[in-house]
Amino acid sequence: MACPICSKPTDPKFTPFCSRRCADVDLSRWLKGTYAIPGAPAGEEDEARPSGGGESSESSGLRSPDKGMDRE
Ligand SMILES: [Zn+2]
């Protein structure tokens, strides 16, 4: 079996890696992978845009330019 990081023969002490370094590399990759989940950048837009709760709550049903069909 070869080290998944550098393809060198694995060391029983660091299975399935060949060394402590490669184990750390794999761990860091794994952690970064969890932070950067593809297809889930949704939350940021809502935070960036003001929800406008109390400003036009009365006439929000008639005029809502913020919720237009296509916003370009
Ligand atoms: Zn390695």
Secondary-structure map with pairings?
Blueprint: H1 20-35, H2 43-48
Bound molecules: zinc ion.
Spatial separation of the terminal alpha carbons: 53 Å
Strand content: under 5%
The major sheet is characterized as:
none
Uncertain stretches of 5 or more adjacent residues: none
Total DSSP E strands: 0
Class by SSE composition = mainly alpha
* Oligomeric organization of the protein chains: single chain
Number of helices: 2
Shape: rod-shaped
Helix content: 25-40%
The H/E string reads: HH
The gyration radius over C-alpha positions equals 25 Å
Could you walk me through the main structural features you see in this protein, from its secondary elements to its overall organization?
The chain is mainly α and 72 residues long. It has two helices and no strands. It has helices at 20-35, 43-48. The mean pLDDT is 75. Bound molecules: zinc ion. Zinc ion binds next to loops. Zinc ion is lined by residues 3, 5-6, 8, 17-19, 22.
Defining traits:
mainly alpha; 72 residues; binds zinc ion; rod-shaped
Brief summary of the model shown:
With 72 residues, the chain is mainly alpha-helical.
